[in-house]
Amino acid sequence: MSEPRIAVVSAGLGDPSSTRLLADRLRDATLSALTGHGQTAEAVDVVLRPLAQDIAAHMLTHNPSGALAAAIREVVDAEAIIAVTPTFNMSYSGLFKSFFDVIEEGQLASIPTALGATGGSARHSMVMDTAMRPMFAYLKAQVVPTGVFAASEDWGTASGLERRIARAGQELADLMVAMPRRREADPFDVESDAFVSFEQMLGHA
């Protein structure tokens, strides 16, 4: 059986990006917390910046590029999600929202999820409760209690950012262990135990 996978979605517009840095810190905290449960996981980075044009085109044509389809599949098939966005006008970025808009309804239901956001100052921290939580509640994801907002002044100071990251990572790991995602086997997947070949069906006739 393969390791559970954590999809780490970051919507930073710069390179390097504080949004990507926060996503990486949340990933590391979650993986560390999982080891405390005697478990491991594979983290898969889903960086949205290179997919911006593909996302916009898909919203117009409903025909995803290969790269975008692969990114969507990484997220909807994951056992957990870490989703981090920069903050604009007290909300998530348009790129972040557009990516989750192109995911079909119901595909994120019950997936353990940790949320993070970055911004220029702490006055934007309400974005966690006013924008991100309602969005992921609508998507029916299982969001952990601690959301992590990182203002510019939080990095490299005794701001409590590292404690919040560790707490969110622990909560996500705990939820992954307590509520492991279970999927029904795809009967058309030839690698699945549920797959029945035409020859086998004839044999049962």
Protein topology:
Blueprint: E1 5-10, H1 18-36, E2 42-47, H2 52-61, H3 66-76, E3 80-88, E4 91-92, H4 94-101, E5 112-119, H5 127-138, E6 142-143, E7 148-151, H6 161-178, H7 198-204
Parallel strand pairs: 1-2, 1-3, 3-5, 5-6, 5-7
Antiparallel strand pairs: 3-4
Helix pairs in contact: 1-6, 2-4
Question: Could you write a compact summary of the structure shown?
Answer:
GO terms for molecular function: oxidoreductase activity. Pfam families: FMN_red (PF03358). With 205 residues, this protein is of the alpha/beta class.
Keywords:
oxidoreductase; alpha/beta; FMN_Rdtase-like_dom; Flavoprotein-like_sf; 7-stranded mixed β-sheet; Rossmann fold; 7 strands; 41% helix
What would your notes on this structure say?
With 205 residues, the chain is of the alpha/beta class. It has a single domain (5-204), classed as 3-Layer(aba) Sandwich (Rossmann fold), CATH 3.40.50. The protein has helices at 18-36, 52-61, 66-76, 94-101, 127-138, 161-178, 198-204, and strands spanning 5-10, 42-47, 80-88, 91-92, 112-119, 142-143, 148-151. Strands 1, 2, 3, 4, 5, 6 and 7 form a seven-stranded mixed sheet that branches. A hairpin with a 2-residue loop joins strand 3 and strand 4 (91-92). The chain is globular and about 45 Å long. It starts with a strand and ends with a helix. The model is unreliable at 184-195 (pLDDT under 50). Residues 4-155 form the NADPH-dependent FMN reductase-like domain. One of its GO terms (molecular function) is oxidoreductase activity.
